[in-house]
């Protein structure tokens, strides 16, 4: 999958043990070394997600019109018994007539009665319910803890293992992000390591309502369209996607569009035309990354799926529609102005590549915002810093020595040696010299 185009690996901490995740992390790092790829490890915390418990192997069939029960007092399903639910206060939060949606809304039930810790319901839309599938409550007011003990334990494990990004699922306000940032900051200082970046997963109406405040305190955003489509009318999801992508781009923060992008390839070797269009349109919306879930985690064709997605992304990025014409009046500050100037040079095909350094601040983020049709090579201090920058569109991190006055010449030689560019290529270098941002064109 790395050779096919995978830039990041999301580990879903709603499933699996710490030992299993540790083995996955080891495998990812080992495969990255073997292939020479830079691959970010993204730890997706469960958050206040409500799920069913352990179900029979192969799942439990639910039929339209069937009467079933849920229980908040058990963890595992027993033959003929109630369906276990992980949220222990569910019986306090639901009432008769309210819907309980299962497995991203593919199954629907309606509550008929609540008695003690048992919830009786009628199946409206059936299916096969498997272990640990999600449970959504679009009609209920839920009082679940926004950052659970499990999240804390998983976060501390992730810090020990050196994950690159931490995703806060079902975030509803900036408070959780600020809390987690304090935790990772303290842990990083104590161990002398680089703290992971923090990403907010937007998948509820509440998160959309507080999006500006959340965006201000996180480093990136993931748009979880599956759960979001259960919280708001599904026809609104594409508009929300475009809006949030644009807000992130203007804030110079990367965004990942996720969920059901090539869903049919979990079962079939070819994607549908609609799925291909979905991926392409996300790119043309100017998202930084697109993500696979079940297609690569448990699907039958993981490598073919990554190949298909990478191919669509390349084609969309090469099109004339993936061009950003930012009004000059909207450009704020010297770094943005210089980034815009370099992007114009790329658009007019006057340069073959762009190069900068993390020592120059957030210039790479500004450059990425304009989506120039040439690669942006970013000099990073270490592997961890390089992995954290893999989510920015068009940015190619390169670990190399920094800090000297002859950075453009040295980095040019490094890029040539690694085969990223040719010696005669025209490269625009944005570097930091004497505290000032400096633009150098190599090869003119």
Automatic annotation (TrEMBL):
Keyword Magnesium: yes
Domain Pyruvate kinase C-terminal: 337-427
EC main group: transferase
Pfam family, one: PK_C
Pyruvate kinase barrel domain sequence ranges: 1-306
InterPro entries: Pyr_Knase, Pyrv/PenolPyrv_kinase-like_dom, Pyrv_kinase-like_dom_sf, Pyrv_Knase-like_insert_dom_sf, Pyrv_Knase_brl, Pyrv_Knase_C, Pyrv_Knase_C_sf, Pyrv_Knase_insert_dom_sf
Pathway: Carbohydrate degradation; glycolysis; pyruvate from D-glyceraldehyde 3-phosphate: step 5/5
Catalytic activity from the UniProt record: pyruvate + ATP = phosphoenolpyruvate + ADP + H(+)
UniProt GO MF annotations: ATP binding; kinase activity; magnesium ion binding; potassium ion binding; pyruvate kinase activity
Name used for this protein in its record: Pyruvate kinase
Organism the protein comes from: Candidatus Uhrbacteria bacterium GW2011_GWD2_52_7
Species lineage: Bacteria, Candidatus Uhriibacteriota
């Amino acid at each position: 999958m790395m050779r096919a185009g995978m830039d990041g690996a999301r580990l879903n901490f709603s499933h699996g043990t710490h030992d299993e995740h540790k083995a996955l992390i080891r495998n990812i790092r080992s495969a990255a070394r073997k292939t020479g790829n830079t691959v970010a490890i993204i730890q997706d915390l469960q958050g206040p997600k409500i799920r069913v418990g352990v179900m029979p192997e192969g799942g439990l069939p639910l039929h339209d019109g069937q009467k079933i029960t849920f229980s908040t007092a058990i963890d595992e399903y027993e033959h003929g018994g109630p369906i276990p639910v992980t949220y222990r206060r569910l019986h306090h939060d639901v009432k008769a007539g309210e819907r309980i949606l299962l497995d991203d809304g593919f199954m629907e039930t309606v509550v008929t009665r609540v008695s003690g810790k048992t919830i009786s319901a009628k199946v409206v839309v059936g299916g096969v319910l498997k272990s640990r599938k999600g449970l959504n409550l679009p009609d209920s007011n839920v009082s679940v803890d926004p950052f659970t003990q499990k999240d804390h334990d998983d976060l501390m494990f992730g810090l020990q293992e050196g994950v690159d990004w931490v995703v806060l699922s079902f975030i509803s306000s900036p408070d959780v992000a600020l809390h987690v940032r304090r935790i990772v900051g303290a842990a990083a200082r104590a161990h002398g390591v680089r703290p992971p970046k923090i990403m907010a997963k937007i998948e509820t109406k509440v998160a959309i309502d507080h999006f500006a405040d959340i965006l201000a305190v996180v480093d990136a955003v993931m748009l979880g369209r599956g759960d979001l489509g259960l919280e708001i009318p599904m026809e609104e999801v594409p508009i929300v996607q475009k809006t949030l992508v644009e807000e992130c781009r203007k804030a110079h923060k990367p965004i990942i569009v996720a969920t059901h992008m090539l869903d049919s390839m979990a079962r079939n070797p070819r994607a549908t035309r609609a799925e291909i269009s979905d991926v392409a349109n996300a790119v043309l919306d100017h998202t930084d990354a697109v993500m696979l879930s079940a297609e690569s985690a448990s699907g039958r064709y993981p490598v073919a799926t990554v190949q298909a997605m990478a191919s669509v992304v390349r084609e969309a990025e090469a099109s004339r529609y993936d061009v950003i014409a930012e009004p000059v009046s909207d450009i704020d500050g010297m770094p943005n102005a210089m980034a815009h100037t370099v992007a114009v040079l790329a658009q007019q095909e006057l340069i073959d590549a762009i190069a900068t350094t993390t020592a120059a601040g957030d210039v790479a983020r500004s450059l990425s915002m304009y989506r120039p049709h040439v690669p942006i090579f970013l000099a990073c201090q270490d592997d961890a810093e390089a992995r954290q920058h893999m989510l920015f569109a068009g940015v190619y991190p390169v670990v190399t020595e920094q800090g000297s006055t002859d950075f453009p010449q040295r980095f040019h030689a490094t890029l040539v040696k690694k085969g990223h560019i040719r010696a005669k290529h025209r490269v625009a270098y944005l570097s930091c010299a004497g505290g000032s941002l400096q633009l150098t064109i190599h090869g003119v």
